Amino acid sequence: MKIMDGQLAVIGLGSVGSMALWQASHLTDSVHGFEAHSPGHARSAVGGDTRLFRMVYRGNPSLYPMLERSRDLWGELEAETGQVLLTNCGGLSIGTADGTYIRSLLETTRANGAAHEVFTPCEMAARYPQHNLRSDDIAVYDPNAGVLRTDRAVTAAVAAAQSNGATVHINTPIDSIQEDAHGVVVTSGEKSWTFENVIVASGGWSRRLMPASLRTATETKRLILTWFVARDPGQFTPEKFPTFSRIYDDRMMYGAPAVDDVTVKATLDGRGRATPDPGSVPRELTPEEIAETTETVSEFLPGLVPTIVRSDAFPELYTEDRNPVVGRLSKSRGIYYVTGFSGGGFKTATGHGHIAAYEALDKQSFDGLEFLRPQRFKTS
């Protein structure tokens, strides 16, 4: 029998891969993590300091238990590492009162029973005057929302996994994975390892490790982030300025408070552009992106100086239906995919990492996830 190098390998130690490694390290001391650069590196979708966590959202109600579990696991990771990762500052969802976004969001929220309040423009002016609402707007407030520290979370999870016995290989890009009669062969350059199971969690780089049948259902896109300086920084601290998402038919923006006491994240949403190579995403914003971003900030958040003081761009893997790929292919024994989060996966990274680790190691299976399984794309 061929000698195994380990029970499990996790390829990609970013948003979800780091959490899968951490969770797996509680189940086995024979887990390896492979990262093409270093955990938390700024070229991956982890970059940009912060991501939004929220319990109020629009879409599939089946996501709600995942959000509840993820919130608990963020607390467990904080307790294990001593790091502050999730700051509860509340969250606002803003849009036209009778528009598609707010209607869908309230429908999902009421179905889930998530705590929330609805504010009129007058109530918003009194509570959160930083936002300039239109006359027909309303805001839905989520008291359980907050802001996640991305690079801190990823590095904390990897360090915790190493403390539990996990082996981490940095600067080790994976060229191929191949199942054989003994297990899964993982290759990087001239080196190779064999594992009983492999989790693929490499975000925008996952497509090259997918079969053609699954690649056709995914696309790597370039996402931008932008930051602004506040005229009165004291009005944009986490204590006074919740995270926000604001959507109309013509314009979309989301943002987070000034966690560094200086810059406020306010960035356009829904503007991802296809990019063939995740390793060479154009970092600079186009004149059109700059113009639309500053125009939107001028209208939505007049307390910000409408000049971009920091910007960046990152690759992310999108699926056809904007739901991630979570699970094994129908004919695969040892390869497990947890990728394709379509720009919205960090809030549930702990929950999806937990599922991936337990299912890949055959410790537990989870029901109700058919809408995430790769078989929905008729993969082979």
TrEMBL record:
<keyword id="KW-0560">Oxidoreductase</keyword>
<feature type="domain" description="FAD dependent oxidoreductase">
    <location>
        <begin position="8"/>
        <end position="358"/>
    </location>
</feature>
<keyword id="KW-0285">Flavoprotein</keyword>
<dbReference type="GO" id="GO:0008115">
    <property type="term" value="F:sarcosine oxidase activity"/>
</dbReference>
<dbReference type="Pfam" id="PF01266">
    <property type="entry name" value="DAO"/>
</dbReference>
<protein>
    <submittedName>
        <fullName>Putative sarcosine oxidase</fullName>
    </submittedName>
</protein>
<dbReference type="InterPro" id="IPR036188">
    <property type="entry name" value="FAD/NAD-bd_sf"/>
</dbReference>
<keyword id="KW-0274">FAD</keyword>
<dbReference type="GO" id="GO:0050660">
    <property type="term" value="F:flavin adenine dinucleotide binding"/>
</dbReference>
<dbReference type="InterPro" id="IPR006076">
    <property type="entry name" value="FAD-dep_OxRdtase"/>
</dbReference>
<dbReference type="InterPro" id="IPR045170">
    <property type="entry name" value="MTOX"/>
</dbReference>
